[in-house]
Amino acid sequence: MFRKIPQTMSWKTSYRKNEFIISIVGIAIGAFMLLIGLFGTFLSDYSFEPFTAINNVIGAWTWWLLVVGIILIFVFIIMIYLRIKRLKEFDDLFETESKSKFRKNVVRIEELAIKLGPEFEDKVIEKEEDFNLRR
After folding, report:
1. How far lies 75's CA from each of 13, 32, 36, 78, 110, in Å?
2. The pLDDT of residue 2 is above 60
């Protein structure tokens, strides 16, 4: 199986560990930008005072905020979907009591653990030690 190499907290490790929170913040920023863009373009007659003040400062950039807000929301929703999909697949493959099934799926389990973050890598290492698996 794979051996965990001690490493400092790189940006990639930090990102994998906090991917869900980063995605939620990205969706919130995208939604705010979308609202500013909507109230500056299509819904300018119904705009609330804070959005009117922001749109007066931004000017013609409201269209760009509308487009960027839509893109951010779309991208971060896809990231959350993929994270949940990987978590589900990892749980399905990892939660087995059969050593042969675990050994058969160990490569995919390790790939998912690497994508999901350090705590999942630790779980895989612990399970490999429980099953006395060696490469």
Report:
1. 20, 15, 19, 5, 26
2. no
